[in-house]
Write a structure and sequence with these properties.
Elements lengths: L1 H12 L6 E8 L2 E8 L3 H6 L2 E2 L5 H8 L3 E3 L10 H9 L5 E6 L8 E6 L9 H39 L2
């Protein structure tokens, strides 16, 4: 599902297809990268956990909104260390979408990375990105409620049945 969400964002944006992107999940007040695609090891190591408001993804998650960084080289949403790692990865344009319900806490971010600065997006593209974020948020919420919370009960049942 995470790969499908990332592929959908790349499809909506329809700029050059670099294949670079990532999905991050919000956990304990920070973002954890769970699905990188086409990104250098330096990038995935540096952004494995984001817990400060020095990147556009952290700001987008905090504000539960779409963030479009038209040009990483000039955007003031980054500290200099983050900016340089992103640029070395070959990313200049960076649209990011918060995943979560229309109202409430963002539970993730989906980002695609592009070799050139980005133009603006059409209203249809913005609506499609919002819909994708909401749908991924619903899936993640359901997954957390059912699979993650049910796992300990399942393990307990399996362990006690073997006695």
């Amino acid at each position: 599902m995470l790969s499908a969400a990332l592929n959908r964002v790349l499809e909506i944006i329809q700029t050059e297809q670099t294949g670079m992107g990532n999905v991050q999940l919000a956990e304990s007040g920070r973002l954890r990268m769970v699905r990188p695609s086409g990104l250098a090891r330096e990038f995935t190591s540096f952004f494995a956990f984001v817990d400060q408001q020095t990147t556009s993804c952290a700001q987008g998650a905090e504000q539960r909104r779409q963030v479009t960084v038209r040009d990483v080289a000039t955007e003031d949403a980054f500290d200099e260390g983050s900016r340089q790692v992103i640029l070395r990865a070959g990313s200049r344009g960076l649209p990011q979408r918060a995943a979560g319900p229309r109202a409430g806490v963002a539970i993730g971010m989906v980002s695609s990375h592009h070799e050139r600065p980005l133009p603006g997006f059409s209203p249809a593209q913005l609506r499609a990105l919002e819909t994708s974020g909401v749908m991924l948020g619903r899936w993640l919420s359901r997954h957390r409620r059912t699979v993650v919370l049910d796992a300990p009960a399942h393990l307990h049942t399996a362990a006690t049945a073997q006695r």
